[in-house]
Amino acid sequence: MLGVLLWKGCSDTKQLKEELKIAKIENAELLTKVDQINQENELLLIDIDSFETKVDSLEIQVEKAKKIKSKIETKVIESIKYVEVENDTIKNLMLLNAQNDTIIRNLDMLVSIKDSVILKQNLVIQNDNEIQDHLKSMLEARDKRNEQLNKDLIKENRKKMFWQATSAGLGIALVTVLII
């Protein structure tokens, strides 16, 4: 009977140690998942950088187009001052219209690229927040589980020591009885 109780204490300790080992493996898996999400975020940030480069390029093109538009407007205004409708005036008006169209197209592309950058930045922020929330909850749960496992190990060790002390005491008492 005493041997069965001692064996039960050992198996409970082994089971608790096994559960701790499993918890450590799960922690390693979580760290791997976090690394994967961080890699995805890095790729998104690279996309954002390329979009920002495109934005800068488009902004430069818009500025150039505005300068050209300004020059054409000046020519048109000068032509209109003299109220002489010439082929140059019509040509300048057509150039002005073409420049306006170019500016509008570039601004539309700029807006769509900036929208894409904003969406990707929001996705990165959202991923980071989800990672943090998930990790906090998982760590809290694991901390509670580890505390419980440690308490159980302490209880099992105390039981083991009690049964060992009891066994030793019974052994001494038995030896004493047999000697007497």
Question: How are the SSEs placed, and which strands pair?
Answer:
Layout: H1 2-81, H2 87-179
Helix pairs in contact: 1-2
The tally of structural domains comes to 1
Multimeric status of the protein? single chain
Looking at the structure, the CATH topology is Helix Hairpins
What is the global morphology? rod-shaped
Report the biggest beta sheet as strand number plus sense, adding barrel if it closes. none
Name the helix and strand elements from N-terminus to C-terminus, one letter apiece: HH
How would you describe the overall organization of this protein?
It is a single chain. The protein is mostly helical and 180 residues long. It has two helices and no strands. The chain has one domain (2-179): Helix Hairpins (Orthogonal Bundle), CATH 1.10.287. Helix content is 96%, strand content 0%. It starts with a helix and ends with a helix.
Brief digest:
The protein has 180 residues and is mainly α. The chain has helices at residues 2-81, 87-179. The two termini are 25 Å apart.
Give a quick set of tags describing it.
180 residues; mainly alpha; Helix Hairpins; 2 helices; disordered N terminus
